[in-house]
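Hi R.,

Here's the input for the iron/sulfur cluster complex you asked about:
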Amino acid sequence: MSSAFVTEIFSSVQGEGKYIGCRQIFVRLADCNLNCAFCDTDCRRAENCRVETAAGTATFRDVKNPLEPAQVVEVVKNFCDTVPTQAVSFTGGEPLLNWRFVRDVATAIKNFGVKIFLETNGTLPDALEKISDAVDIISMDIKLPSVVGRNLLPLHEKFLQVAYGKDLYVKIVVADSSTREEFLSAVETVAKVDAGILLILQPVTPVNGVGAASAEKILSFQAEALRRLQDVRVIPQTHKFINLL
Ligand code: SF4
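And here is the predicted structure with iron/sulfur cluster in place:
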């Protein structure tokens, strides 16, 4: 059986992307294979996982890490029994680093009436291939070189090919440092797989010295992307507006 270091488990509202506003359970796994300039998440392994005591209360108890899948399944069941929930979101960090654990939890909760939602940085196609059957929705980031310091587009393209056919959308965080050239290369990577894939431009929430892109830049990026892709939306992170987890 797999086990994993989990940072937190809680019930809240999806604050980003296509399913913004939906009630979800978040299972945040430790560890990440990237180091994005705008990262606002502490991905380090901690001694304890904080688990919400009841869905949506924002009060927590500590559970010793690493967790077994059955421990997560029990929490998810309790939350689903009290609040009708759209999906269980595996997030991070990068959840595919713990793909066995995600697979085991996802398989065990399949009959709970919730979708399995994967929030990923889109760089581990081999891991996705192993659990793709267990996943319903994929929110995949494309990371621009100005954010991660290297070109990940070949990996992202491979990932898109594996994810294609799922309920899939792509998210690109745009900052003041994002260049038109790197953005258009990312758009082209999506278009090569299918111009019908939804692309979401997420204006960066300023952090760690990373500044916001201007409104003009966001609008011009959207206009250019719309010449190659059918559906391009601008959606900021919303959970932070109302202090949700
Ligand atoms: S992929 Fe996500 S969790 Fe990992 S460093 Fe980047 S923003 Fe942070």
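One thing worth noting: Residues 142-238 form one domain.

Cheers,
M.
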